[in-house]
Each structure stands twice: as structure tokens, then as C-alpha cells.
């Protein structure tokens, strides 16, 4: 009973804090905090999407950066064709309207996830980890060699996508747009996790045989989960391209997949908001350590090691335990 | 909530402990790559820039240099720029080594009215239509590197070239740039891979094609690997090689050793240039650091001199952007390269030289200047730039 | 024809190099169930330690024991301090911990040796080329790598098939519980296997010294390829790792050598070259995907 009341209160407080963040940051003289928070929100969406298959479904994908990159490149390529005024393939006009680019990015990454998922899910365990990595690497090399879209140098998006009535050049507006999308995203994810579908996915992780015995087609369920997860990452990638005003193959490099995975593990696998917290911890650590010392990687490595060896279930679990002890 | 607060507290306190800065010093933000295999490039950029700061001053104006590592991640570079711009109120930027970091970071900097002077990366996507009045490049436009190598191969009388570069944008630009100025025939063209550690398959093809000359573009570790394996395959004695400077800097030479003897390269700067500014630079470098000097350091040194000239002319008043820009544009400083000026797109117009790797007096290989390739060479994108 | 033979040798040499790394990785994978991303870091440590000693003393040969010892030592320390706590934990924890190790080692190496790549000169004995067949010149050093790699493969074969330790290793890779039930000191066995894997990685690192750039990050570059080998060969199978390494080495080399040429027959020059390079960099991943789709557990593991 107590728990069911505590959680919504906590969430409301978190939301208020996030809404107030740009104003507070400006007032306190830390204006760059807003864009740091924007990055955290975007990575939070990507990590939470990964967590849906990884934490809830037990499918360890090492290639989710591919969908992140597809989302980013969708925005970038549509923008390039818009600014050059040349239609893609001669008949698809480019655009800079976010209301079009975001859904297109989500759909395209969903299609890509369907293809990769359909093939990869025929394996399991370590082999699944490696085959997802293989597909992501293939896409990475494809975009590196795509001269039309900047290849390795990446694609500069001179102006962020437009939304009606909003000034997307304003950093606070971009932040609030990302926040709104993140809130929507987490609401949908919450519904999904607590739906019958979500229960089946968790059930599949625990025992595929039992689910098969009830007569559930495991493969199909897993594939749908994989597609949904890919779409979430695509959404994050599209937002990232808008925020950075830049898309590059760097977005789909295997280290990016690794970073997303680390955010999930840091925050707590199989929890709704764990990945968001993990993203926050990772990105804040990275920027804070880097501004302290050029040997920041050493510190980051030691912290990661500490988290794995001495906390069970990531930062969130650690926090919960500390709070539990003091209360 | 508690976590959120804790996080905020951590990040806030982290920013707060940054050293308090003297009021009158002009702040310069340097975003560069210090970690990973390419870390030595950023290190040389930073250290070269610092050499030009005498008693913490540039052009007689006290400056405060803030250096941060972008980790070769475009997102990280942008984040640092954001913080430098909004929290430290920095107006002068420099440091970025790689084109992809520049692509994500430079537009933000110049859009907010700050200045960016590039000590290295000069990507074509910022040189033409997207040029900006607050964006200066002291190093080169990427294409010039390879155009000069093409010209050198022509000058040396080679008729048949085999060319190799990694399969990415800079690699393709390199081959295109070389071909633009090479008058002979192309015997073969191979795109290698960025993650390649073994070039034996390509070298066998080179040998089979029997060209007069090989041109290859492999920066950093790739180039070390390529050169070593080229020499080990016995090709250095059979087929001469022409490269542009990114494939053969001071550090590469130290790592390759005698394998590089006989190599032809082109450059806009070399450690043996006989001018007062360069002598001063080389003395300072050898006194301060016990490691080979690279052209990255020289470019950063020139970048610092360019800033110094503008700071001197405006007496450290960077709030009048128009005056500062006009002063910067004059390029009124003694470059370690000798002659130096900015073209219409604020990229350099400079001379290019032919260099050769030879046995030095102490038995170690050195890079020697042997001739000139281009005079007052600009770039092809300047025409597209409307300022 | 000589060109073809030369390319074949090149493929074998690359494959042998991969095998030295993959052997340790697949044992650690198969026996302890640990995904060790830091395997590449051990390779780097072997390369740095060996190359540094060789450069300081001026003797290439002194570098060999130094590189091997440093790598094995690093391996045992990693096992003792970190990996030991990860047995039986989730793969995810192992990925996170060993990724942390990568960061730590990269930075530590930068702080110790600086950012410049190291240099070692080739010993006179191994410098130059020999004529294997009329018209077929091949660098001695590369031949030496092939010989060493094949000797190691033979040694591993004998170790695993003819000795008691090998029996335990074989048993461990198929049935971990059984070995424990036999009353064997599993901890010691694990440390030994990890140390052996590290030793081989160090050997690969040192041998790579004269032909590659010894620099920070060299481990990650080859790590992913090594994982591909392990998965294609079948996790835990040394034999699988051996054949998969050779297959991958030869496939990768021949794609680079022949694909652009083939493509040039059907399309314009530069485009063919770019496409060829693009496909060949995807080649090994494509190969892995195909293998896994046909045999989900890898080539050399029987599907249950």
C-alpha cells in the first residue's frame, strides 16, 4: 500500500524537477546543464528501449546502436534532400518538419529491427549477442562508405527540424520537446510492460518452454518486442540528430551499443526508470570527469568496476538500499 | 527525487570547483582529442599552442587556456562547446583535430557569435557554401594535402601510380585530390579498411601491377602499419612512394624508423625551415618536450600566433567582434611556415614543399626539405564561399 | 598463380594471428562462461611490454619473455581481482566489468608510455624475404608467425587431448558441474586457463609489434574480429577456433584481394572499388551471420 503511493509521488516530483531544470540551471549560472539534461533524456529513451528486450525479455542485443543510427540518419538524409531541393531516389521529397521526420525514423528503424530481429532470433545466448553486433557493424561500414551522405565525416544538419508554433533554435524548447516525448515514451512503455504482452515477454525470459507449453508462439512474441525496442532506439536517434544537428556513423559504432548497454546495467536491468538513471549517471560522470582530468577514462573504468562488483542491480538498487537503510 | 537531487548536487559542485579565473584574462577554449590511439595529435595541438603563450600572455594580453578532451566523439565535443559558451562565456575557440568532431561542434560555436580558429581539421563541408565569417582555418583545406602530393608525383616524372586509401570520406577525398594534379596514368586504385591491421593482400596487388610510384593515405597507426609492411615486403626498394604529410609526421617516422628511408612527401611545414619564427619554435619545443615534433604542434603554434596578433591589434577587446575579425583576417604574424595569408573563405593560401626521408647526421632518419611544389596555393571551395 | 599462393599465405598468416587470440577467448568463454572484453587489453599489454623491453635493451629476443610474462601476469591478476567474482554472474555484469577494465588499461598505458606509438626494429635474422617458389617472395617474419602459430596450435592440441589438465578442460567446457563434482580445485583450473589464454594473447601482441602500430586501442581493433572467430568456430572449441581463424583469415584476405577486381568487370572502376571495400569490410560479419543462421551454435559444435 505504502509503495503504491510512494511511487507516483516520486514520479511527480521527478517530473516537476525536470520541468524546472532549465530555469533553475540558468538562474544558478549552469546554463549548459539544460543540454546535458537533453542528452540524458535522449539516451534514456534509447537505453530504456534496449532494456525492454534486454532486461524484460532477456535478449542481450549488442547492436542497438544500429537503430539509433538509422533514426539519426533518417533525419539527416531527409534534411539534406530538403536543403538541396532534390528528391530522394527522384521521387521522395526531403523535409525538415519534425512531425514527419520522427514518425518516418521510427517506422524505418522498426522495419530494420524486423529484418535483423527475424534473422537474429533464430539463435540465442552468446550467439545472439554476436549476431546482433554483426548486423550493426555491417550497417556501420555501409554508412562509412556512403559518400553521398558524408561518409565518415557525417552529415551536418544546419537547422534543427521545425515544429509548428515552436522556435526549435531555442535550447530550452528543444529540451521541453525532448522531455514531452520522453514522458510520452515512458508512459507507453509502462503500459506495455504491465500489459499481457509484457507479461508474456517476461515469462519468455524465465522459461520459454513453459510459455510454449501454454501454446504461445515464443518467436513471434520476441520478434514483436525486438521491433518495438528498435523503434524506441530509432526515435532516440532522430531526437539526437536534431539535438546535435549532426548525424554520423559514430552513432552506430559498436562502442555506442556498448554504452547503451552500460547505461542499462548501471541503472538497473529490468526496471522501468533504471535506464534513464543509468544514462544520467553515465553522461554526468563522463562530462564531469573529463572536465576534471584528462585521465577521466581511468576514473570511469574504476567506477564501472565498482558498480559491477559491489552493487547488485546497479545504481538504482544501491540507492534504494541506502534509502531503505536510513529509513 | 533524492537521486536526481544528488546528481544535480554532484554536477553542480563539479562545475563549481573549476578554478576561479582572473577577471581580466581572455579565455580561450580548446576542445581536442587526448584519449585513444589519436591522443598524440591533441597532445601536440595543446602543447604547441602553449609554447606560443609567453608568461600566460598572447600578444601582450593575459589569456586563460581551458583544455578539454572530446574523446573523438562529436557529441562530447558539442557538449563541451556548450558549456564553454554558456557557463564560461568563452568567445575564442580552437583545438579540434578531427573533421567529424568539427562538423558537430563548429556550427554551434560560430552561430553563437564566437570565433573558431582551426589548428588542424579543414573539412570541405565547412569550406565552401557553409563557410562562416567567424570560422578560420590556419592549417589547410583537406584537399590541398593530396593535391600537392599529386603535383609532386608529376614533378618527379612518374607516369604510372598505384593509389590506396581507407574507404571513408577523407580517404576518397585524398585519392580525388591526388588524381586532380597527377598527370600520369592510374595503374590501380584500392580502398582499404579503417579497421585493417594487415595489408599483405593489397601489397601483393601493388607488386603485381608494377607501378612507377605508390601514393597512399593512411593517417596515424594505419600509416605506421602500412609503411612497416610495405618495407617488410621489400617494396620500398622496388617502388618509390609519395605521400601527403598526414601519413608521415614526426611521430610516425619515430615509430617506423629506417623503413621510411627514401619516402617522398609534401608538406606546408617542416622542422628544418630556415626562418626566425620556426627557429624560435623549434628551440622552444626541444627545450620543453622530449619527443618528436609534429606539424600538428606547428599548426597549433601558428593558431596561437594568429590569435595573438588579433588580441594585440584590438588590445584584448574581444567584445567588438567586427574589429577582432578584421584583425584576425590580416594574419599579421610571423608564421613558422614563412609566408601565410587567408584566402576569401578564410582558409590558408600558402606554399607547399617537397620533403624526403633521409639518414640524418646521427644515423636516425630525418625529414628533409628538398624543394617546392606549389606557390600560394589556396583551395577550390573558396569560390563557393559567399561572405 | 604465385599471386594466388601469396594471398593464400597472407590469409593463413592473418588467420594464425587471430587463432592465438581466439584460443584463449574461446577457452575462457567455454569453460568459465565469461565474456572477457579485456582480452584485447592483454594483447596490448603483451605488445607494449615486449616492444618496450626490446627497444630499451636493443634485443628483440629479450622482448619475448617480457611480453609473455607481462601478459600472463596481467591475466592472472585480472582473474584474481575481477573475473573470479564474475563466475556464474550474468553476461551483462561481465560485459560491464571487462569494459571498465578496457578503459583502465588504456588510460594506464597512456600514462606509463605516453601517447606516441612504440617502435621496435626487426631482428636481422627475420628481416627480408625468401623465395619460396620461383617468383614467390615472402617476408621471413610472416613465415615465422605462421610457424609459431601452427606450433602453438599443435601444442594446444597435445595439451588438451593428451594430458590430465586437458581432460579437465575438455570436461569443463561441456559440463562444468561434473568437474566440480570430481573434487578438482576448479579455482586453480580457472586461474590456469585464464593465465594460458593471457599468455597466448601476449604472444600475439608481441609478434604483432614489428608489423603493426603498437598503440593504445590496438586491442579493441582486433577484439571484435576475434569474437567473430570464436562464435563461428563454436564457443569453447579450440579446434573450432583454429579452423574458423584460418577460414576467416583466408576469406577476409581474398575478399580484399579479389572482390574489387570482380566487381570491376560489371561496373565502373572507382565505384567498384568503393563498393568492393564496403562489402569486404562487412564480409566477416556477413559470414558470421550466415554461419549462425545455418548452424546456430557455430561450425564445430554439434547441435543438440
TrEMBL record, chain A:
It holds the Pfam family BPD_transp_2. This is Branched-chain amino acid ABC transporter permease. InterPro entries: ABC_transp_permease, LivM-like. It is a multi-pass membrane protein. Keywords: Cell membrane, Membrane, Signal, Transmembrane, Transmembrane helix. One of its GO terms (cellular component) is plasma membrane. Residues 1-27 form the signal peptide. It is found in: Cell membrane. GO terms for molecular function: branched-chain amino acid transmembrane transporter activity. It comes from Pseudaminobacter soli (ex Li et al. 2025). The keyword Transmembrane helix applies. The chain crosses the membrane at residues 37-54, 61-79, 99-121, 128-146, 173-193, 219-240, 260-285, 297-318.
UniProtKB/TrEMBL annotation, chain B:
InterPro entries: BCAA_transport, Leu-bd, Peripla_BP_I. Keywords: Amino-acid transport, Signal, Transport. It holds the Pfam family Peripla_BP_6. It comes from the Bacteria. Residues 26-360 form the Leucine-binding protein domain. Residues 1-22 form the signal peptide. GO terms for biological process: amino acid transport. PANTHER family: LEUCINE-SPECIFIC-BINDING PROTEIN, PERIPLASMIC BINDING PROTEIN OF ABC TRANSPORTER FOR NATURAL AMINO ACIDS. Belongs to the leucine-binding protein family. This is ABC transporter substrate-binding protein.
Automatic annotation (TrEMBL), chain C:
PANTHER family: ABC TRANSPORTER ATP-BINDING PROTEIN, BRANCHED-CHAIN AMINO ACID TRANSPORT SYSTEM PERMEASE PROTEIN LIVH. One of its GO terms (cellular component) is plasma membrane. The keyword Membrane applies. The chain crosses the membrane at residues 12-30, 61-83, 95-116, 136-160, 188-216, 222-251, 272-294. One of its GO terms (biological process) is amino acid transport. Belongs to the binding-protein-dependent transport system permease family. LivHM subfamily. Pfam families: BPD_transp_2. It is a multi-pass membrane protein. The keyword Ion transport does not apply. It comes from Pseudaminobacter soli (ex Li et al. 2025). Keywords: Amino-acid transport, Cell membrane, Membrane, Transmembrane, Transmembrane helix, Transport. GO terms for molecular function: transmembrane transporter activity. It is found in: Cell membrane. This is Branched-chain amino acid ABC transporter permease.
Amino acid at each position: 500500500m505504502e509503495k503504491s503511493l510512494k511511487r507516483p509521488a516520486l514520479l511527480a516530483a521527478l517530473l516537476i524537477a525536470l520541468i524546472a531544470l532549465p530555469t533553475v540551471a540558468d538562474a544558478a549560472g549552469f546554463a549548459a546543464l539544460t543540454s546535458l539534461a537533453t542528452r540524458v533524456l535522449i539516451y534514456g529513451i534509447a537505453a530504456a528501449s534496449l532494456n525492454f528486450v534486454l532486461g524484460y525479455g532477456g535478449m542481450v542485443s549488442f547492436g542497438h546502436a544500429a537503430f539509433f543510427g538509422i533514426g539519426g540518419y533518417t533525419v539527416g538524409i531527409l534534411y539534406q534532400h530538403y536543403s538541396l531541393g532534390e528528391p530522394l531516389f527522384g521521387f521522395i521529397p526531403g523535409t525538415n518538419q519534425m512531425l514527419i521526420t520522427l514518425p518516418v525514423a521510427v517506422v524505418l528503424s522498426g522495419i530494420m529491427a524486423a529484418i535483423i530481429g527475424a534473422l537474429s532470433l533464430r539463435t540465442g545466448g552468446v550467439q545472439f549477442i554476436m549476431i546482433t553486433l554483426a548486423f550493426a557493424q555491417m550497417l556501420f561500414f555501409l554508412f562509412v562508405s556512403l559518400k553521398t551522405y558524408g561518409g565518415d565525416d557525417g552529415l551536418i544538419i544546419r537547422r534543427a527540424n521545425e515544429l509548428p508554433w515552436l522556435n526549435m533554435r531555442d535550447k530550452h524548447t528543444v529540451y521541453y520537446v525532448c522531455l514531452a516525448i520522453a514522458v510520452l515514451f515512458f508512459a507507453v512503455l509502462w503500459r506495455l510492460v504491465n500489459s499481457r504482452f509484457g507479461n508474456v515477454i517476461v515469462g519468455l525470459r524465465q522459461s520459454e518452454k513453459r510459455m510454449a507449453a501454454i501454446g504461445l508462439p515464443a518467436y513471434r512474441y520476441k520478434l514483436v518486442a525486438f521491433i518495438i525496442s528498435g523503434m524506441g532506439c530509432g526515435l532516440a536517434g532522430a531526437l539526437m540528430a536534431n539535438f546535435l544537428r549532426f548525424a554520423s556513423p559514430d552513432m552506430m559504432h559498436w562502442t555506442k551499443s556498448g554504452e547503451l548497454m552500460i547505461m542499462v546495467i548501471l541503472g538497473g536491468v529490468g526496471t522501468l526508470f533504471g535506464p534513464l538513471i543509468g544514462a544520467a549517471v553515465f553522461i554526468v560522470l563522463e562530462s564531469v570527469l573529463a572536465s576534471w582530468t584528462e585521465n577521466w577514462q581511468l576514473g570511469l573504468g574504476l567506477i564501472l568496476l565498482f558498480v559491477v562488483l559491489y552493487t547488485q542491480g546497479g545504481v538504482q538498487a544501491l540507492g534504494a538500499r541506502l534509502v531503505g537503510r536510513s529509513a | 527525487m533524492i537521486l536526481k537531487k544528488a546528481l544535480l548536487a554532484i554536477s553542480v559542485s563539479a562545475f563549481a570547483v573549476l578554478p576561479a579565473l582572473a577577471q581580466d584574462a581572455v579565455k580561450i577554449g580548446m576542445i581536442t582529442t587526448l584519449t585513444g590511439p589519436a591522443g598524440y595529435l591533441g597532445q601536440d595541438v595543446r602543447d604547441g599552442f602553449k609554447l606560443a603563450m609567453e608568461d600566460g600572455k598572447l600578444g601582450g594580453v593575459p589569456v586563460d587556456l581551458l583544455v578539454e578532451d572530446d574523446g573523438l566523439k562529436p557529441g562530447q565535443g558539442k557538449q563541451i562547446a556548450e558549456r564553454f559558451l554558456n557557463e564560461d562565456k568563452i568567445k575564442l575557440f580552437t583545438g579540434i583535430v578531427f573533421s567529424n568532431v568539427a562538423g558537430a561542434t563548429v556550427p554551434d560555436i560560430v552561430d553563437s557569435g564566437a570565433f573558431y580558429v582551426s589548428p588542424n581539421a579543414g573539412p570541405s563541408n565547412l569550406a565552401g557554401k557553409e563557410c562562416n565569417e567567424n570560422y578560420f582555418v590556419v592549417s589547410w583545406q583537406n584537399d590541398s594535402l593530396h593535391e600537392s602530393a599529386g603535383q609532386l608525383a608529376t614533378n618527379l616524372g612518374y607516369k604510372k601510380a598505384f593509389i590506396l586509401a581507407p574507404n571513408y570520406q577523407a580517404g576518397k577525398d585524398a585519392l580525388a585530390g591526388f588524381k586532380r594534379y597527377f598527370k600520369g596514368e592510374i595503374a590501380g586504385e584500392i580502398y582499404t579498411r579503417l579497421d585493417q591491421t594487415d595489408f599483405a593482400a593489397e601489397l601483393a596487388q601493388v607488386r603485381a601491377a608494377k607501378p612507377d610510384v605508390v601514393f597512399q593515405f593512411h593517417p596515424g597507426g594505419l600509416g605506421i602499419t602500412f609503411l612497416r609492411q610495405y618495407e617488410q615486403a621489400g617494396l620500398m626498394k622496388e617502388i618509390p612512394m609519395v605521400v601527403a604529410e598526414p601519413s608521415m609526421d614526426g611521430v610516425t617516422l619515430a615509430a617506423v624508423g629506417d623503413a621510411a628511408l627514401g619516402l617522398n612527401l609534401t608538406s606546408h611545414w617542416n622542422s628544418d625551415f630556415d626562418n626566425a619564427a620556426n627557429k624560435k619554435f623549434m628551440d622552444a619545443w626541444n627545450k620543453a618536450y622530449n619527443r618528436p615534433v609534429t606539424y600538428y604542434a606547428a599548426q597549433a603554434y601558428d593558431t596561437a600566433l594568429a590569435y595573438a596578433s588579433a588580441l594585440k591589434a584590438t588590445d584584448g577587446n574581444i567584445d567588438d567582434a567586427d574589429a577582432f575579425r578584421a584583425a584576425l583576417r590580416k594574419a599579421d604574424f610571423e608564421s613558422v611556415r614563412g609566408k601565410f595569408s587567408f584566402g576569401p573563405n578564410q582558409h590558408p593560401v600558402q606554399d607547399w614543399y617537397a620533403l624526403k626521408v633521409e639518414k640524418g647526421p646521427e644515423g636516425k632518419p630525418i625529414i628533409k626539405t628538398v624543394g617546392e611544389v606549389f606557390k600560394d596555393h589556396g583551395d577550390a571551395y573558396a569560390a563557393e564561399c559567399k561572405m | 598463380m604465385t599471386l594466388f599462393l601469396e594471398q593464400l599465405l597472407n590469409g593463413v598468416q592473418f588467420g594464425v594471428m587471430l587463432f592465438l587470440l581466439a584460443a584463449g577467448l574461446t577457452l575462457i568463454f567455454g569453460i568459465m562462461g565469461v565474456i572477457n572484453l579485456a582480452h584485447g587489453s592483454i594483447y596490448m599489454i603483451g605488445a607494449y611490454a615486449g616492444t618496450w623491453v626490446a627497444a630499451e635493451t636493443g634485443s628483440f629476443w629479450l622482448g619475448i619473455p617480457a611480453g609473455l610474462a607481462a601478459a600472463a601476469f596481467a591475466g592472472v591478476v585480472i582473474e584474481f581481482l575481477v573475473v573470479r567474482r564474475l563466475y556464474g554472474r550474468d553476461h551483462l555484469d561481465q560485459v560491464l566489468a571487462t569494459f571498465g577494465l578496457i578503459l583502465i588499461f588504456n588510460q594506464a598505458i597512456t600514462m606509463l608510455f605516453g601517447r606516441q606509438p612504440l617502435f621496435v626494429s626487426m631482428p636481422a635474422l627475420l628481416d627480408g624475404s625468401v623465395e619460396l617458389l620461383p617468383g614467390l617472395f615472402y617476408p621471413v617474419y610472416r613465415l615465422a608467425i605462421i610457424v609459431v602459430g601452427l606450433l602453438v596450435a599443435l601444442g594446444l592440441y597435445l595439451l588438451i587431448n593428451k594430458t590430465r589438465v586437458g581432460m579437465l578442460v575438455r570436461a569443463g567446457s561441456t559440463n562444468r558441474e561434473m568437474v566440480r563434482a570430481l573434487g578438482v580445485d576448479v579455482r586453480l583450473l580457472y586461474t590456469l586457463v585464464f593465465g594460458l589464454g593471457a599468455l597466448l594473447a601476449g604472444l600475439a601482441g608481441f609478434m604483432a609489434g614489428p608489423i603493426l602500430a603498437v598503440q593504445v586501442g590496438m586491442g579493441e581493433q582486433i577484439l571484435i574480429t576475434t569474437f567473430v572467430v570464436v562464435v563461428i568456430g563454436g564457443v569453447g572449441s579450440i579446434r573450432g577456433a583454429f579452423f574458423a581463424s584460418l577460414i576467416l583469415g583466408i576469406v577476409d584476405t581474398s575478399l580484399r584481394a579479389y572482390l574489387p577486381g570482380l566487381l570491376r568487370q560489371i561496373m565502373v572502376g572507382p565505384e567498384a572499388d568503393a563498393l568492393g571495400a564496403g562489402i569486404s569490410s562487412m564480409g566477416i560479419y556477413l559470414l558470421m551471420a550466415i554461419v549462425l543462421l545455418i548452424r546456430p551454435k557455430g561450425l564445430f559444435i554439434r547441435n543438440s
